[in-house]
Fold this protein.
Amino acid sequence: MADNEEGRMLTKSAQPRGINVDMLRVVCMFFIVVLHSYGVVGLLSSIKPLSANWWVCSTFRAIASNASNCYVLISAYFLCMSRFSARKVLSLMLQVFIYSSVLYLLAVSTGIRIFNTEEMLKAFFPVSTAYIWFASCYAAMYILSPFINISIGSMSREKLRNLIVILFVFLSLAPAVTLGHDAFGVARGFSLIWFVFLYYTAAYIRLYVYDMTKESGGGALKYLCVFVLLILFAVLCRGFAAPPLYRIYGRTPFVLFYGRTAPVFLFASLSIFMFFLRIRVTNGLVSKVVSALTPLVFGIYLFHNHPAVRGFIWNNIFHMKEYANAPYLPFYILFAAVCVYSAGLLIDSLRMRLQGMLENTAVFKKACAALSSAKLISVMESVDKKAAVR
Amino acid sequence: MSDAEKDLQEACRGESLDANASLAAVVSMFAYLVTVLLSRGGVLDALAPGTALWWAVRFMNYLCYASVNCFVMSVSWLLITKGFSWLRAADMLLSLLLWSVVFFAAAFRMDPAAYHFSPSLFFRVFMPFVSGSFGLPSLLIALYIVSPFIAGSLSRMTVGQHASLCFMMVLMLSFIPGVLVFSDACYALHGRSLIWFVTLFILSAYIRRDPGIIKLSASSSFCFWLACAAVTTAAMYVLPGALYSVFGKNSYASSIYEYNSILTLCSSFFMFAGFMRLKPVKWSLCGLLPDLVPLMLGVCIIAACPWTDKFIYGRLASPRRFAGTAAVIPLSLMYTLAIFAVALSAEFIRKTLFSMLLGSRNEVSEDGR
């Protein structure tokens, strides 16, 4: 995922740089799996409102709503000080392609999915068709990163802050205040413009607020407190403000309570991101485990959220809906998530070996060389990694 | 020649084309109103596919469809050097709010039964900018607000980097969604999004940076514009059936002529290029153009107002009544001209009144940001 080689160097505090944010990645992915465990099958709507299960699931969901924002923030935090590489784009596309095509073919051949021309095309062009939406937006953001870095470098601190405030008003505040009207095309955060906004925000943090590669950490706890308070606020609002709003408005405005663009979740994402930026991981075992898991976590996403298999996982293997009102539902959700997470890790370690072999082939190397020699791409690769610095 | 002299020469070359960009903006707005009249007036739906009139009206529609992109490119051209002022932005926002409230009040008075109070209606009437109830004007104002940031960023890029950015944006937001018809991977939302308008701004800035990239003459550019419209018309006749037979859905065909489709983008580029290669500086009307361009947003707001469109295009200037006859084309143009003139006058009066009230002419200041 993100380019944080730079971040893996050792600091004075003996913590491999980047382990703290890698930990956030690992945790985020776990919550994404938790979210999908009931989100995919519509479990929340089957749970009795305001019951214990409902509160726990709503809290899980509120925490998980920050995951994709955090992923983008982490990537942008490193990308704003990195050089663009065409090889990385191809590598990402290959990873997504392997999951998308292999799982689709498996799903069709085993009868999990009925063959359909459109879906087949999508499965074989997963990035261009947004079959895996996050991969599409992430790839687009990565491709634009050298230009965004130049853009950041062209602005003073004050000007960059103004841009972030303006984009916040357009993309986060406006849809929330108007209960979901999307005048500027933010598409509930599934869009490139939202990723670009997060990129600017992460770059601002790195350049002007806190650069973990230079500063010593500390002061993390207050960010965790803010995160907890915001999540509590969101969950309480969901429980007590949504029903009256539903009566007035005719529907519960998703964007206000669980959309990743909602101001409450944007600030929660920033709080938890800042928390992980400021903590120091000194335990050797934790560092080793996190380092081992980090390269595999995106694979977990690609595996468990593949459109052709996700319904099968949660409906046919774990039968989530049947446990909607069981008293042990939260534990069952965690159990299912751990199973899927572990399976994803195993599968992705196999994928890594396969991809390693493919990337060593002459074809892949030639493709990379051809891309890098193309004038339009070489211009991007030549952008200085400190272009964002004014 | 030194770099500074080259820059100066480049800037002068760009400025000399400002009149062309102004002309392109005014004509584009007129063409946009033609598409509004044809769609909201019900002409497009009233014609039987395959008839001569269907071909003629569709051709006119797709010809004018390029106007939105062309308008954005034209105003972007002008914005790059004009600078930004919060006073101007406030004027735009006030204009949108005023016309929204005034027209809603008029529409409500004419037909109170058509409106039931709801929070959604409230937001659409009283917060038209952030609710996007008018569509295009919200995006234009947003583009105006972010334009100094984009212009500043582009000025830091080399020509090669700028070209590369144009290529990537067009590839991701226009080419891929246009070719893979079921894809909108980056959510350009059919060109009705801020990111698409930013893309057009970037393209326009590139042309301004190197106007020499327009190699065609004005007449050749206009011919290509016509050709793009003809291809779109033919594609829209043939492709819906073909796409339906493959994917079982009708909706994909519309991706061919969305604002961000590659065909529409080419059409818009040729339309814009045609105007940029004209020699309007010799025309006597040329002096009026810079004063007309700031009124175009108001024209767009008034003529495409969602509260009064049923009245304007359904009763007042209803071209649907003539949909079966050849008169529909000249009548549509005449109606559009009348609406354009009325909207222009209304916006001019509004702007003059606001200027008097504010005690300023709301001129754009270079240091207003």
Observations:
- Confidence is low (pLDDT under 50) at residues 1-14 of chain A.
- The two ends of chain A are 26 Å apart (CA to CA).
- The first helix of chain A runs from residue 19 to 39.
- The CA atoms of residues 25 and 71 of chain A lie 6 Å apart.
